[in-house]
Fold each of these.
Amino acid sequence: DAEITQSPRHKITETGRQVTLACHQTWNHNNMFWYRQDLGHGLRLIHYSYGVHDTNKGEVSDGYSVSRSNTEDLPLTLESAASSQTSVYFCASSESKGGAYNEQFFGPGTRLTVL
Amino acid sequence: GNSVTQMEGPVTLSEEAFLTINCTYTATGYPSLFWYVQYPGEGLQLLLKATKADDKGSNKGFEATYRKETTSFHLEKGSVQVSDSAVYFCALSLTGAGSYQLTFGKGTKLSVIP
Protein backbone atom coordinates (compact mmCIF):
# COMPACT_ATOMS: atom_id res chain seq x y z
CA ASP A 1 0.00 0.00 0.00
CA ALA A 2 1.13 3.54 -0.71
CA GLU A 3 2.14 5.55 2.30
CA ILE A 4 3.97 8.57 3.59
CA THR A 5 6.62 8.12 6.26
CA GLN A 6 8.61 10.50 8.41
CA SER A 7 11.83 9.99 10.29
CA PRO A 8 12.85 10.29 12.98
CA ARG A 9 9.60 10.18 14.95
CA HIS A 10 11.22 11.92 17.90
CA LYS A 11 14.30 14.13 17.97
CA ILE A 12 16.02 16.12 20.68
CA THR A 13 18.70 18.56 19.64
CA GLU A 14 20.56 21.58 20.93
CA THR A 15 20.24 25.20 19.97
CA GLY A 16 22.39 26.08 16.97
CA ARG A 17 22.63 22.58 15.50
CA GLN A 18 21.52 21.75 11.99
CA VAL A 19 18.69 19.24 11.88
CA THR A 20 17.13 17.44 8.93
CA LEU A 21 13.72 15.78 9.06
CA ALA A 22 12.97 13.20 6.40
CA CYS A 23 9.72 12.72 4.50
CA HIS A 24 9.18 9.91 1.99
CA GLN A 25 6.00 9.14 0.05
CA THR A 26 5.16 6.26 -2.24
CA TRP A 27 1.95 7.77 -3.66
CA ASN A 28 3.88 9.22 -6.61
CA HIS A 29 2.33 12.59 -5.79
CA ASN A 30 3.75 15.73 -7.33
CA ASN A 31 2.82 17.96 -4.38
CA MET A 32 4.49 17.79 -0.99
CA PHE A 33 4.08 20.02 2.06
CA TRP A 34 5.67 20.62 5.45
CA TYR A 35 3.63 21.93 8.39
CA ARG A 36 4.30 22.59 12.02
CA GLN A 37 1.64 22.10 14.66
CA ASP A 38 1.61 24.15 17.84
CA LEU A 39 -1.03 24.63 20.51
CA GLY A 40 -3.18 27.62 19.70
CA HIS A 41 -1.91 27.89 16.13
CA GLY A 42 -3.22 24.76 14.48
CA LEU A 43 -1.26 23.78 11.38
CA ARG A 44 1.03 26.30 9.73
CA LEU A 45 2.61 25.80 6.35
CA ILE A 46 6.41 25.96 6.29
CA HIS A 47 7.39 25.03 2.71
CA TYR A 48 5.85 23.22 -0.19
CA SER A 49 6.83 21.73 -3.51
CA TYR A 50 4.81 21.09 -6.67
CA GLY A 51 7.40 18.92 -8.35
CA VAL A 52 11.05 17.99 -8.66
CA HIS A 53 13.32 21.01 -8.22
CA ASP A 54 10.33 23.19 -7.29
CA THR A 55 10.17 24.69 -3.76
CA ASN A 56 8.11 27.52 -2.29
CA LYS A 57 7.92 29.33 1.02
CA GLY A 58 4.90 29.05 3.26
CA GLU A 59 3.76 31.38 6.00
CA VAL A 60 6.45 30.39 8.56
CA SER A 61 9.50 29.59 6.44
CA ASP A 62 12.17 31.60 8.29
CA GLY A 63 14.89 29.28 9.60
CA TYR A 64 13.81 26.34 7.42
CA SER A 65 14.78 25.09 3.99
CA VAL A 66 13.75 22.24 1.67
CA SER A 67 15.02 20.71 -1.52
CA ARG A 68 13.28 18.33 -3.94
CA SER A 69 15.61 16.13 -5.96
CA ASN A 70 13.10 13.36 -6.68
CA THR A 71 9.36 12.77 -6.52
CA GLU A 72 9.39 10.68 -3.33
CA ASP A 73 11.34 12.84 -0.87
CA LEU A 74 11.14 16.33 0.61
CA PRO A 75 13.59 16.71 3.52
CA LEU A 76 13.14 19.68 5.83
CA THR A 77 16.30 21.30 7.21
CA LEU A 78 16.56 23.58 10.19
CA GLU A 79 19.76 25.48 9.49
CA SER A 80 20.42 26.51 13.09
CA ALA A 81 17.85 25.13 15.48
CA ALA A 82 16.19 27.52 17.91
CA SER A 83 13.97 26.81 20.91
CA SER A 84 11.08 28.44 19.06
CA GLN A 85 11.26 25.59 16.57
CA THR A 86 10.26 23.02 19.19
CA SER A 87 7.11 21.61 17.63
CA VAL A 88 5.48 18.67 15.94
CA TYR A 89 6.23 18.57 12.22
CA PHE A 90 3.98 16.97 9.63
CA CYS A 91 4.70 16.14 6.04
CA ALA A 92 1.87 15.73 3.54
CA SER A 93 1.43 14.98 -0.15
CA SER A 94 -1.31 15.35 -2.75
CA GLU A 95 -2.07 14.94 -6.41
CA SER A 96 -1.93 17.79 -8.91
CA LYS A 97 -5.58 17.86 -9.91
CA GLY A 98 -6.74 20.82 -7.85
CA GLY A 99 -10.03 21.65 -6.14
CA ALA A 100 -11.73 18.67 -4.58
CA TYR A 101 -8.73 16.52 -5.41
CA ASN A 102 -6.54 18.54 -3.08
CA GLU A 103 -6.94 15.93 -0.37
CA GLN A 104 -3.62 15.77 1.39
CA PHE A 105 -2.22 12.55 2.87
CA PHE A 106 -0.31 13.11 6.08
CA GLY A 107 2.64 11.36 7.66
CA PRO A 108 2.67 10.38 11.35
CA GLY A 109 4.68 13.43 12.42
CA THR A 110 8.06 14.16 14.00
CA ARG A 111 8.23 15.60 17.49
CA LEU A 112 11.25 17.91 17.66
CA THR A 113 12.58 19.36 20.90
CA VAL A 114 15.28 22.03 20.80
CA LEU A 115 17.06 22.51 24.11
CA GLY B 1 -7.27 36.28 1.84
CA ASN B 2 -8.63 32.83 2.59
CA SER B 3 -9.38 31.79 6.15
CA VAL B 4 -11.22 29.18 8.19
CA THR B 5 -12.70 29.81 11.62
CA GLN B 6 -13.66 26.96 13.93
CA MET B 7 -15.36 27.01 17.26
CA GLU B 8 -12.98 27.14 20.17
CA GLY B 9 -12.43 23.97 22.12
CA PRO B 10 -12.01 21.82 23.94
CA VAL B 11 -15.42 20.18 23.66
CA THR B 12 -16.35 17.50 26.18
CA LEU B 13 -19.39 15.31 25.60
CA SER B 14 -20.87 12.21 27.12
CA GLU B 15 -21.11 9.08 25.01
CA GLU B 16 -24.17 9.07 22.71
CA ALA B 17 -24.51 12.87 22.83
CA PHE B 18 -25.08 14.96 19.69
CA LEU B 19 -22.04 16.72 18.29
CA THR B 20 -21.78 19.97 16.35
CA ILE B 21 -18.49 21.66 15.55
CA ASN B 22 -18.97 24.97 13.78
CA CYS B 23 -16.83 26.00 10.83
CA THR B 24 -17.11 29.15 8.73
CA TYR B 25 -14.86 30.29 5.93
CA THR B 26 -13.77 33.27 3.89
CA ALA B 27 -12.51 32.61 0.39
CA THR B 28 -11.74 34.53 -2.78
CA GLY B 29 -13.31 32.14 -5.18
CA TYR B 30 -15.28 28.94 -4.97
CA PRO B 31 -13.68 26.53 -2.50
CA SER B 32 -13.87 22.83 -1.82
CA LEU B 33 -14.33 22.10 1.88
CA PHE B 34 -12.86 19.37 4.05
CA TRP B 35 -12.96 17.98 7.56
CA TYR B 36 -9.85 16.22 8.82
CA VAL B 37 -9.48 14.23 12.04
CA GLN B 38 -6.33 13.72 14.09
CA TYR B 39 -6.34 10.89 16.62
CA PRO B 40 -3.84 11.09 19.50
CA GLY B 41 -0.26 10.60 18.36
CA GLU B 42 -1.16 10.38 14.67
CA GLY B 43 -1.20 12.53 11.57
CA LEU B 44 -4.31 14.05 10.06
CA GLN B 45 -6.62 11.96 7.92
CA LEU B 46 -9.50 13.04 5.73
CA LEU B 47 -12.89 12.54 7.34
CA LEU B 48 -15.18 13.98 4.65
CA LYS B 49 -15.37 16.61 1.93
CA ALA B 50 -17.78 18.59 -0.23
CA THR B 51 -17.09 20.31 -3.51
CA LYS B 52 -20.09 22.54 -4.25
CA ALA B 53 -22.98 24.32 -2.59
CA ASP B 54 -25.53 22.07 -0.86
CA ASP B 55 -23.28 19.02 -1.15
CA LYS B 56 -23.28 16.84 1.94
CA GLY B 57 -20.15 14.97 2.87
CA SER B 58 -20.49 11.97 5.16
CA ASN B 59 -18.31 9.28 6.70
CA LYS B 60 -18.31 7.15 9.89
CA GLY B 61 -21.59 8.74 11.01
CA PHE B 62 -20.28 12.28 10.60
CA GLU B 63 -21.93 14.72 8.21
CA ALA B 64 -21.33 18.26 7.00
CA THR B 65 -23.26 20.32 4.44
CA TYR B 66 -21.67 22.99 2.27
CA ARG B 67 -23.73 26.15 2.86
CA LYS B 68 -22.68 28.87 0.46
CA GLU B 69 -25.20 31.42 1.73
CA THR B 70 -23.79 31.26 5.26
CA THR B 71 -20.23 30.29 4.20
CA SER B 72 -20.35 27.40 6.64
CA PHE B 73 -19.47 23.70 6.81
CA HIS B 74 -20.50 22.54 10.28
CA LEU B 75 -19.60 19.02 11.36
CA GLU B 76 -22.31 16.92 13.04
CA LYS B 77 -22.73 13.45 14.47
CA GLY B 78 -25.86 12.13 16.04
CA SER B 79 -24.32 9.91 18.69
CA VAL B 80 -20.64 10.19 19.59
CA GLN B 81 -18.50 7.38 20.92
CA VAL B 82 -15.40 7.38 23.09
CA SER B 83 -13.43 6.41 19.99
CA ASP B 84 -14.37 9.76 18.38
CA SER B 85 -12.12 11.60 20.83
CA ALA B 86 -9.71 13.48 18.58
CA VAL B 87 -8.87 16.88 17.15
CA TYR B 88 -11.01 17.97 14.20
CA PHE B 89 -9.82 20.41 11.55
CA CYS B 90 -11.91 22.23 8.99
CA ALA B 91 -10.09 23.19 5.79
CA LEU B 92 -10.68 24.73 2.38
CA SER B 93 -9.06 24.50 -1.00
CA LEU B 94 -9.66 26.78 -3.93
CA THR B 95 -10.50 25.31 -7.30
CA GLY B 96 -8.54 26.32 -10.33
CA ALA B 97 -5.17 25.61 -11.85
CA GLY B 98 -2.26 25.71 -9.46
CA SER B 99 -4.40 25.78 -6.29
CA TYR B 100 -3.07 22.85 -4.33
CA GLN B 101 -2.83 24.31 -0.85
CA LEU B 102 -5.20 23.74 2.01
CA THR B 103 -6.11 26.48 4.47
CA PHE B 104 -6.81 24.97 7.90
CA GLY B 105 -8.75 26.14 10.91
CA LYS B 106 -7.00 25.91 14.27
CA GLY B 107 -8.67 22.66 15.23
CA THR B 108 -11.24 21.66 17.84
CA LYS B 109 -10.37 19.04 20.43
CA LEU B 110 -13.21 16.67 21.25
CA SER B 111 -13.21 14.47 24.34
CA VAL B 112 -15.98 11.89 24.76
CA ILE B 113 -16.45 10.43 28.22
CA PRO B 114 -18.22 7.15 28.95
Note: The CA atoms of residues 36 and 72 of chain A lie 20 Å apart.
Amino acid sequence: AQTVTQSQPEMSVQEAETVTLSCTYDTSESNYYLFWYKQPPSRQMILVIRQEAYKQQNATENRFSVNFQKAAKSFSLKISDSQLGDTAMYFCASLLNDYKLSFGAGTTVTVRA
Amino acid sequence: ETGVTQSPTHLIKTRGQQVTLRCSSQSGHNTVSWYQQALGQGPQFIFQYYREEENGRGNFPPRFSGLQFPNYSSELNVNALELDDSALYLCASSLVDGANVLTFGAGSRLTVL
Protein backbone atom coordinates (compact mmCIF):
# COMPACT_ATOMS: atom_id res chain seq x y z
CA ALA A 1 0.00 0.00 0.00
CA GLN A 2 1.08 3.56 -0.63
CA THR A 3 0.39 6.48 1.67
CA VAL A 4 0.98 10.07 0.63
CA THR A 5 0.89 12.84 3.24
CA GLN A 6 0.60 16.56 2.62
CA SER A 7 0.76 18.34 5.95
CA GLN A 8 -0.04 21.87 4.74
CA PRO A 9 -3.76 22.35 4.02
CA GLU A 10 -3.25 25.94 2.83
CA MET A 11 -0.39 28.15 1.71
CA SER A 12 -0.40 31.81 0.71
CA VAL A 13 2.33 33.55 -1.27
CA GLN A 14 2.87 37.02 -2.67
CA GLU A 15 3.10 37.31 -6.43
CA ALA A 16 6.71 36.86 -7.67
CA GLU A 17 7.75 35.19 -4.41
CA THR A 18 8.63 31.52 -3.82
CA VAL A 19 6.56 28.91 -2.02
CA THR A 20 7.46 25.34 -1.09
CA LEU A 21 4.91 22.58 -0.62
CA SER A 22 5.82 19.51 1.39
CA CYS A 23 4.97 15.88 0.71
CA THR A 24 6.02 12.63 2.30
CA TYR A 25 5.17 9.15 1.12
CA ASP A 26 5.47 5.62 2.36
CA THR A 27 6.30 2.70 0.09
CA SER A 28 8.40 -0.43 0.37
CA GLU A 29 9.01 -0.53 -3.38
CA SER A 30 12.34 0.51 -4.88
CA ASN A 31 10.97 1.60 -8.24
CA TYR A 32 8.14 4.11 -8.30
CA TYR A 33 7.15 7.49 -9.66
CA LEU A 34 6.18 10.70 -7.93
CA PHE A 35 4.06 13.52 -9.29
CA TRP A 36 2.72 16.92 -8.48
CA TYR A 37 -0.65 17.72 -10.00
CA LYS A 38 -2.40 21.09 -10.03
CA GLN A 39 -6.19 21.34 -9.85
CA PRO A 40 -7.54 24.84 -10.54
CA PRO A 41 -11.20 25.76 -10.01
CA SER A 42 -11.88 24.37 -13.49
CA ARG A 43 -11.39 20.95 -11.78
CA GLN A 44 -9.10 19.47 -14.43
CA MET A 45 -6.08 17.79 -12.90
CA ILE A 46 -2.96 19.09 -14.67
CA LEU A 47 0.46 17.46 -14.41
CA VAL A 48 3.03 19.90 -13.02
CA ILE A 49 6.11 17.73 -12.63
CA ARG A 50 7.16 14.09 -12.59
CA GLN A 51 10.07 12.33 -10.84
CA GLU A 52 11.33 8.80 -11.35
CA ALA A 53 12.55 7.31 -8.10
CA TYR A 54 15.68 5.76 -9.62
CA LYS A 55 16.88 9.16 -10.85
CA GLN A 56 18.81 11.13 -8.26
CA GLN A 57 18.60 14.40 -10.16
CA ASN A 58 15.71 16.58 -9.08
CA ALA A 59 13.15 17.27 -11.80
CA THR A 60 12.51 20.83 -12.96
CA GLU A 61 9.87 22.33 -15.24
CA ASN A 62 10.33 26.05 -15.79
CA ARG A 63 9.35 27.73 -12.49
CA PHE A 64 8.56 24.42 -10.79
CA SER A 65 11.20 22.22 -9.19
CA VAL A 66 11.25 19.40 -6.69
CA ASN A 67 13.51 18.38 -3.83
CA PHE A 68 13.46 14.58 -3.89
CA GLN A 69 14.95 12.95 -0.80
CA LYS A 70 14.55 9.21 -1.38
CA ALA A 71 15.93 8.04 1.97
CA ALA A 72 13.62 10.40 3.83
CA LYS A 73 10.74 9.62 1.45
CA SER A 74 10.19 13.30 0.92
CA PHE A 75 9.14 15.05 -2.30
CA SER A 76 8.63 18.80 -1.94
CA LEU A 77 7.57 21.19 -4.71
CA LYS A 78 9.03 24.68 -5.08
CA ILE A 79 7.14 27.27 -7.10
CA SER A 80 9.40 30.18 -8.00
CA ASP A 81 8.28 33.61 -9.22
CA SER A 82 4.69 32.79 -8.27
CA GLN A 83 2.01 34.00 -10.65
CA LEU A 84 -1.70 34.61 -10.10
CA GLY A 85 -2.44 31.69 -12.39
CA ASP A 86 -0.66 29.36 -9.98
CA THR A 87 -3.58 29.68 -7.57
CA ALA A 88 -4.97 26.14 -7.31
CA MET A 89 -5.08 22.98 -5.25
CA TYR A 90 -1.82 21.02 -5.52
CA PHE A 91 -1.72 17.26 -5.06
CA CYS A 92 1.29 15.08 -4.49
CA ALA A 93 0.88 11.54 -5.83
CA SER A 94 2.86 8.33 -6.01
CA LEU A 95 2.58 5.50 -8.49
CA LEU A 96 4.01 2.00 -8.72
CA ASN A 97 4.25 0.15 -12.02
CA ASP A 98 0.50 -0.36 -12.17
CA TYR A 99 -0.93 3.06 -13.05
CA LYS A 100 -2.77 3.40 -9.73
CA LEU A 101 -2.05 6.84 -8.41
CA SER A 102 -2.21 7.40 -4.66
CA PHE A 103 -2.91 11.03 -3.87
CA GLY A 104 -2.32 13.17 -0.82
CA ALA A 105 -5.08 15.34 0.65
CA GLY A 106 -3.86 18.40 -1.23
CA THR A 107 -2.56 21.88 -0.45
CA THR A 108 -4.51 24.97 -1.47
CA VAL A 109 -2.14 27.62 -2.81
CA THR A 110 -3.30 31.22 -3.04
CA VAL A 111 -1.13 33.74 -4.86
CA ARG A 112 -1.78 37.30 -3.70
CA ALA A 113 -1.40 40.27 -6.05
CA GLU B 1 -4.55 16.13 -30.21
CA THR B 2 -7.78 15.94 -28.24
CA GLY B 3 -7.66 15.58 -24.48
CA VAL B 4 -9.86 13.54 -22.17
CA THR B 5 -13.52 14.52 -22.28
CA GLN B 6 -16.16 13.53 -19.75
CA SER B 7 -19.94 13.75 -19.72
CA PRO B 8 -22.11 14.90 -18.16
CA THR B 9 -20.34 17.70 -16.31
CA HIS B 10 -22.95 17.87 -13.57
CA LEU B 11 -25.85 15.67 -12.56
CA ILE B 12 -28.20 15.15 -9.66
CA LYS B 13 -29.64 11.79 -8.66
CA THR B 14 -31.62 10.47 -5.72
CA ARG B 15 -30.61 7.71 -3.36
CA GLY B 16 -31.14 4.24 -4.82
CA GLN B 17 -30.93 5.34 -8.45
CA GLN B 18 -28.31 4.28 -10.96
CA VAL B 19 -25.90 6.52 -12.89
CA THR B 20 -23.64 6.15 -15.93
CA LEU B 21 -20.71 8.48 -16.50
CA ARG B 22 -18.83 8.59 -19.78
CA CYS B 23 -15.26 9.27 -20.79
CA SER B 24 -13.46 9.63 -24.11
CA SER B 25 -9.75 8.93 -23.80
CA GLN B 26 -7.01 11.06 -25.27
CA SER B 27 -6.19 10.01 -28.81
CA GLY B 28 -3.68 7.14 -28.85
CA HIS B 29 -4.18 6.19 -25.20
CA ASN B 30 -5.15 2.58 -24.46
CA THR B 31 -5.66 2.61 -20.69
CA VAL B 32 -8.37 4.38 -18.74
CA SER B 33 -8.70 4.85 -14.98
CA TRP B 34 -11.48 6.26 -12.83
CA TYR B 35 -11.07 8.19 -9.60
CA GLN B 36 -13.55 9.48 -7.02
CA GLN B 37 -12.78 12.84 -5.43
CA ALA B 38 -14.91 13.82 -2.44
CA LEU B 39 -15.12 17.51 -1.64
CA GLY B 40 -11.88 18.83 -0.16
CA GLN B 41 -10.03 15.52 -0.52
CA GLY B 42 -7.59 13.88 -2.88
CA PRO B 43 -8.84 11.51 -5.58
CA GLN B 44 -9.28 7.83 -4.71
CA PHE B 45 -8.60 5.11 -7.30
CA ILE B 46 -11.72 3.18 -8.33
CA PHE B 47 -10.47 0.93 -11.14
CA GLN B 48 -8.49 0.78 -14.36
CA TYR B 49 -9.22 -0.77 -17.73
CA TYR B 50 -6.74 -1.99 -20.31
CA ARG B 51 -7.75 -3.74 -23.53
CA GLU B 52 -11.37 -3.75 -22.41
CA GLU B 53 -10.67 -5.67 -19.20
CA GLU B 54 -10.49 -4.49 -15.62
CA ASN B 55 -6.81 -4.30 -14.76
CA GLY B 56 -6.94 -3.30 -11.11
CA ARG B 57 -9.48 -2.12 -8.55
CA GLY B 58 -9.42 0.07 -5.49
CA ASN B 59 -11.45 -0.29 -2.31
CA PHE B 60 -14.87 0.22 -3.88
CA PRO B 61 -17.90 -2.12 -3.68
CA PRO B 62 -19.17 -4.14 -6.67
CA ARG B 63 -21.96 -1.65 -7.31
CA PHE B 64 -19.21 0.42 -8.94
CA SER B 65 -18.59 -1.14 -12.34
CA GLY B 66 -17.11 -0.07 -15.63
CA LEU B 67 -16.61 -0.78 -19.29
CA GLN B 68 -13.95 0.06 -21.84
CA PHE B 69 -14.91 -0.01 -25.49
CA PRO B 70 -12.79 -0.92 -28.57
CA ASN B 71 -12.27 2.79 -29.28
CA TYR B 72 -10.87 3.11 -25.71
CA SER B 73 -13.79 5.19 -24.46
CA SER B 74 -15.15 4.15 -21.10
CA GLU B 75 -18.16 4.18 -18.80
CA LEU B 76 -18.45 4.19 -15.03
CA ASN B 77 -21.69 2.77 -13.67
CA VAL B 78 -22.83 3.12 -10.09
CA ASN B 79 -25.89 1.23 -8.87
CA ALA B 80 -27.98 1.78 -5.73
CA LEU B 81 -26.63 5.27 -5.20
CA GLU B 82 -25.86 6.36 -1.64
CA LEU B 83 -25.47 9.87 -0.27
CA ASP B 84 -21.71 9.28 0.18
CA ASP B 85 -21.37 8.69 -3.56
CA SER B 86 -21.68 12.46 -4.02
CA ALA B 87 -18.30 13.45 -5.46
CA LEU B 88 -16.35 14.54 -8.51
CA TYR B 89 -15.60 11.54 -10.72
CA LEU B 90 -12.40 11.88 -12.71
CA CYS B 91 -11.42 9.86 -15.72
CA ALA B 92 -7.77 9.58 -16.74
CA SER B 93 -6.23 7.97 -19.79
CA SER B 94 -2.68 6.85 -20.38
CA LEU B 95 -0.46 4.89 -22.71
CA VAL B 96 1.43 1.78 -21.67
CA ASP B 97 4.81 3.19 -22.61
CA GLY B 98 6.66 3.36 -19.34
CA ALA B 99 6.24 7.11 -18.99
CA ASN B 100 3.40 6.61 -16.49
CA VAL B 101 1.75 9.90 -17.31
CA LEU B 102 -2.01 10.12 -16.82
CA THR B 103 -4.08 12.75 -18.58
CA PHE B 104 -7.20 13.73 -16.68
CA GLY B 105 -10.58 14.98 -17.79
CA ALA B 106 -12.44 17.80 -16.05
CA GLY B 107 -14.68 15.37 -14.21
CA SER B 108 -18.38 14.73 -13.66
CA ARG B 109 -19.86 16.25 -10.52
CA LEU B 110 -22.44 13.87 -9.06
CA THR B 111 -24.81 14.96 -6.32
CA VAL B 112 -26.95 12.32 -4.61
CA LEU B 113 -29.98 13.61 -2.70
Note: The two ends of chain A are 41 Å apart (CA to CA).
